[in-house]
Amino acid sequence: QGKQKKARKYAVMKRMISLRDQRINEKDRAKARVKKKEDPSAIKEREVPQHPSCLFFQYNTQLGPPYHILVDTNFINFSIKAKLDLVQSMMDCLYAKCIPCITDCVMGEIEKLGQKYRVALRIAKDPRFERLPCMHKGTYADDCLIQRVTQHKCYIVATVDKELKRRIRKIPGVPIMYISRHRYNIERMPDDYGAPRF
């Protein structure tokens, strides 16, 4: 009986010596990890985000007229395309006074878009719009809006962006305003516990 030939396997990795191997010099060796003994009497700390006091199940008690509406860049652009007056259409949608709010990030985003969006910039600089200053670095408006509605639940977010809408839906108690069929519509406005239905 002959010796069976073994074919060498293709792209086989060479075995590496572990850093704890005895053959490696003492100074180059990896130090063995020492497990800390857990003190059973010590208080275990976990960081849990505090539940907002304004929410009564899904009903947000901070939402009420006059409504503060955070406006996104694309919402202004789509409003211009649909030939809608921003403030008037918001009031027609909610049957109450509306204060459109614009953050520095959204303003910066519109300014970056250049000459093509000068009408949107002029609308954004309307004195009826409330300007909200941003303290963070960068001008990524989506993260800015998410951070703001997570901290303060008193806003309705006006956007047409699918990705931003998906992120906002995960935050309880924040309604979304969007454009469809040449008019403004509201999504997820609470209607239980005697709240107004829209």
TrEMBL record:
One of the GO biological process terms: ribosomal small subunit biogenesis
Keyword annotations: Nucleus, Ribosome biogenesis, rRNA processing
List the record's Gene Ontology CC terms alphabetically. Answer: small-subunit processome
Task: Report the superkingdom from the record.
Answer: Eukaryota
Q: Where in the cell is it found?
A: Nucleus, Nucleolus
Question: What assembly does the database describe for this protein?
Answer: Part of the small subunit (SSU) processome, composed of more than 70 proteins and the RNA chaperone small nucleolar RNA (snoRNA) U3.
Official protein name in the record: rRNA-processing protein FCF1 homolog
**Native source organism of the sequence:** Oreotrochilus melanogaster
